[in-house]
């Protein structure tokens, strides 16, 4: 079962935009509070050496739940303060090998994010992004000197007192459609040149790319689409965002219109193939019942935790025309 992607107002949101976490930033510089919290809180172990895995359990209803450990049983390592639960429980994360645990397995946010409840989805997203940042900033980019953890994990400081803070890299992602309502309406999806699925199936997804320095997200949409498939888009509409900590992106989701009669010219270094699909075809893909008409290979959509699938399903359901 996939938990409903909705915020506190009942509006549809991407799956990893869900959270109940109070980040309680005012505690990050309070050593006395943190010392007490470290003894009474809970710890989420994330193993960056194993691809950012955490322990999770499957529930009878098909959902999943993270395994949080008591501080006394959690592995050693720097504890990064994530925030507090709605009930006031302090929550921390540590980058360490996952302990062996019966009925729990190591999973990535990609694997399980859509099956977690709001608390765990927000917690895993924050923890994965934070530990990824620490791994890549053990040394100062200014001086090359070793850095140490400060502000309960939300800063690193070098011996000269120069601080660094976690960074987020903005990226745009866009569902391009023809503006036609009903089952015959089409969307434009691409297949990344690097995607090789072990079962021989073909995965198509929305187009995406990083926002470059000095560029707006909207300008990045126009540029990336033109670069990747040679199509000009219009009528951009912002649909929502979610963290994608691989290693530290923020995906800014859009929909946009394009003329399906315009020629598609792919950048072969980025896109192996791009084509228009009808709502009927997308619905068949969602049900794992669509095969490539030329090769017979199964055609897949993006993983359930992605904002790409959220954008596709929003369009598929007719919420965006």
Protein architecture, described:
The protein is of the alpha+beta class. The protein has 2 domains: 15-136, no CATH class; 169-316, Nucleoside Triphosphate Pyrophosphohydrolase, CATH 3.90.79. It contains 6 helices and 17 strands. Strands 10, 11, 13, 14, 15 and 16 form a 6-stranded mixed beta sheet that branches. It has a 3-stranded mixed beta sheet with strand order 1-5-4, sandwiched between helices. The longest helix has 18 residues, at 118-135. The model has no long low-confidence stretch (mean pLDDT 94).
On the 0-100 scale, what is the average pLDDT? 94
The poorly predicted ranges are none
- Class of the largest domain in CATH? Alpha Beta
Number of strands: 17
What's the shape?
Answer: globular
User: What is the second-level CATH architecture of the largest domain?
Assistant: Alpha-Beta Complex
Number of helices: 6
**Distance between the amino and carboxyl termini:** 28 Å
Percent in helix? 10-25%
Total number of domains: 2
Main β sheet profile: 6 strands, mixed
> What is the H/E string?
HEEEEEEHHEEEEEEEHEEEHEH
* Strand percentage: 25-35%
Structural class: alpha+beta
Give the assembly state of these chains.
Answer: single chain
